Amino acid sequence: xxxxxxxxxxxxxxxxxxxxxxxxxxxxxxxxxxxxxxxxxxxxxxxxxxxxxxxxxxxxxxxxxxxxxxxxxxxxxxxxxxxxxxxxxxxxxxxxxxxxxxxxxxxxxxxxxxxxxxxxxxxxxxxxxxxxxxxxxxxxxxxxxxxxxxxxxxxxxxxxxxxxxxxxxxxxxxxxxxxxxxxxxxxxxxxxxxxxxxxxxxxxxxxxxxxxxxxxxxxxxxxxxxxxxxxxxxxxxxxxxxxxxxxxxxxxxxxxxxxxxxxxxxxxxxxxxxxxxxxxxxxxx
Length: 285
Description:
With 285 residues, the protein is of the alpha+beta class. The chain folds into two domains: 3-110, Ubiquitin Conjugating Enzyme; 149-267, Ribosomal Protein S5, domain 2 (2-Layer Sandwich), CATH 3.30.230. The protein contains seven helices and ten strands. The two termini are 25 Å apart. Residues 65-69, 116-136 and 276-285 have low confidence and may be disordered.
């Protein structure tokens, strides 16, 4: 197993939950894994060639999880996942995280078209959204999903970091985007930290900027400082951390900013090549 694949497996299970991606117990071939799509009853059989990610993974088919779903749902999920892999794969770059996120978008679009309501809406809140809110409205109350651009996952000592960038034009919109993310994505909502920063140019020369540590002391201010150094405006970023049980010390701040910068690069805000191969373990304490 390559280091890139080992890192990817660790990242996927950190973000989406243990046993999301596991070796197949029914196959002697160690290159075959079972992927359980988040929130879905269908599981998929994937094969990772020895030269992955220089060559793409192969989606072999569905895997029975022992639970019954709607008729045709497994075939639908299989077809959508194959489409997602074909769209996001680039030679030399791990693609599973991007493929899972893409298939979630495709599934949401399909279910919206079918009139399905997968997750019951939670009671609406009468409070105006703020950056740090204890009672989140349901995603349906907050309108369409924000146009997030995601970083690759960065992993160190079993902690996983993922950043999301979105363009924003007002503090209220920034707060609403964060509320939508927390209301619609359980794995983000239950992460250890969601560190946020945003900067907005208002009318008549006014400007607005703010940040939220979300329990990671001083991280929000450092994230905001990065945006100031990069001269980014009308932008917000959310860096999500899933703690892996080993303290990183001051190194965590560099990883938070590195992850945010990757999201800015992928959004086209920085003239810089996107690194191939995904986030690598750096070691450290």
